[in-house]
């Protein structure tokens, strides 16, 4: 039995298992899914499967599998945004010199295993010149070299890159499976496990991070407070918030998307309350605020806000200016 670490994504692992058995794994995959949905886990699984020395890869137990799991394998290289050597701040793009380095390393082939695997984490951050430079390697990688491109914002990638990769899309894992994994494998108390599973939006990685680190839930609470504050405020304060979020988005687009996704889940909850389906509310720990909001807004207003949030997320995904996208959103939120 192959030992995939990725859980709840059988549509991917079983397809990969078949390709592996036929020796027909693609040279380049585009792994698509929201933040913390398992993209890196899947990439490491594929790297293990390519290098595993046992009959049913990835076995998880052989020397190759273990070195990859521990992040020590010389043939598994992660390419992502790096800090600027001068300012120490994280750069916003994957630069062309990083792709040139990748090409030089690729030409040498694997050192210690069967396959050299490059994991390009945050592929939407490839600078256009870097993306262009990568095309040749994507089309015809040297023998025994694989490329795995990870993205939570597929729209930010040029079509020329997308068309050269085989696409794997992570789906939301169902709540029960997440709650069970948290409780059984990570000893989270059953009540906390089911709350985290509901809040995770089907992302096991998020649920695990929130179970380990209380700051995840604290930050979520702050963002919920900001939402309430914005609804109570006039335009001046709203544009201030927009500016704060936009400056964060210029460093971390996925984080900004995350904020909007959280707000969207609140308006969806509100709609559920309005439609008489309180059992479908996700943010159960925020129920009293939701009840208060439900007293203030009609179902029609809640639906309009939810649609506007979706549109803003799509604009950010399509690389619109974060400030503009967020200003439009702030203007469209109902006023007290
Ligand atoms: Zn193995």
Can you characterise this structure?
With 336 residues, the chain is an alpha/beta fold. It folds into 2 domains: 160 residues, Rossmann fold, CATH 3.40.50.300; 120 residues, Up-down Bundle (Zinc Finger, Delta Prime, domain 3). 57% of the residues lie in helices and 8% in strands. The protein has 15 helices and 5 strands. The chain has a 5-stranded parallel sheet with strand order 2-3-4-1-5, sandwiched between helices. Helix 11 packs antiparallel against helix 15. The longest helix has 22 residues. It starts with 9 loop residues before the first helix and ends with a helix. The model has no long low-confidence stretch (mean pLDDT 92). The structure holds zinc ion.
In terms of topology, how is this protein built?
Layout: H1 10-21, E1 28-32, H2 39-51, H3 63-69, E2 76-79, H4 96-108, E3 116-121, H5 128-139, E4 145-151, H6 159-162, E5 166-169, H7 175-186, H8 190-199, H9 204-212, H10 214-232, H11 235-251, H12 253-274, H13 287-296, H14 299-317, H15 322-332
Parallel strand pairs: 1-4, 1-5, 2-3, 3-4
The structure holds zinc ion.
The site of zinc ion has 9 residues, from helix 3.
**SS field, number of helical segments:** 15
Q: What's the CATH architecture name of the largest domain?
A: 3-Layer(aba) Sandwich
| Helix percentage | 55-70%
Largest sheet, described in full? Answer: 5 strands, parallel
Biggest sheet strand order reads 2-3-4-1-5
Distance between the termini: 59 Å
What is the number of E strands? 5
How many whole angstroms does the radius of gyration measure?
22 Å
Strand proportion, as a percent range, falls in: 5-15%
Q: CATH homologous superfamily of the largest domain, by name?
A: P-loop containing nucleotide triphosphate hydrolases
């Amino acid at each position: 039995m192959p030992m995939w670490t990725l859980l709840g994504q059988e549509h991917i692992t079983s397809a990969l298992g078949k390709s592996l058995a036929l020796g027909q794994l693609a040279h380049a995959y585009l792994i698509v899914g929201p933040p913390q949905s398992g993209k890196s886990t899947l990439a490491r699984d594929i790297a293990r499967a390519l290098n595993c020395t046992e009959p049913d890869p990835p076995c998880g137990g052989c020397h190759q599998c273990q070195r990859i799991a521990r992040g020590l394998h010389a043939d598994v290289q992660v390419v992502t945004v790096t800090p600027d050597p001068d300012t120490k701040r994280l750069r916003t793009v994957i630069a062309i010199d990083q792709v040139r380095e990748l090409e030089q390393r690729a030409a040498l082939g694997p050192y210690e295993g069967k396959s050299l695997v490059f994991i390009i984490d945050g592929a939407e951050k490839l600078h256009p010149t870097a993306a262009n430079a990568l095309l040749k390697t994507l089309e015809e990688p040297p023998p025994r070299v694989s490329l795995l491109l990870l993205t939570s914002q597929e729209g930010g990638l040029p079509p020329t890159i997308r068309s050269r990769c085989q696409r794997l899309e992570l789906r939301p894992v169902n709540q029960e499976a997440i709650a069970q994994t948290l409780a059984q494998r990570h000893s989270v108390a059953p009540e906390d496990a089911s709350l985290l599973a509901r809040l995770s939006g089907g992302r096991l990685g998020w649920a695990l991070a929130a179970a380990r680190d209380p700051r995840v839930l604290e930050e979520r609470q702050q963002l919920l407070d900001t939402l309430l504050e914005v609804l109570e405020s006039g335009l001046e304060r709203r544009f201030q918030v927009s500016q704060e979020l936009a400056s964060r988005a210029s460093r971390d687009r996925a984080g900004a998307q995350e904020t909007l996704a959280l707000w969207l889940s609140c308006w969806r909850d509100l709609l559920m309350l309005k439609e008489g389906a309180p059992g479908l509310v996700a943010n159960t720990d925020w129920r009293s605020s939701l009840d208060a909001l439900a007293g203030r807004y009609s179902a029609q207003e809640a639906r309009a806000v939810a649609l506007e949030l979706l549109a803003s997320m799509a604009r950010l995904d399509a690389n619109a200016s974060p400030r503009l996208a967020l200003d439009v959103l702030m203007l469209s939120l109902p006023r007290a």
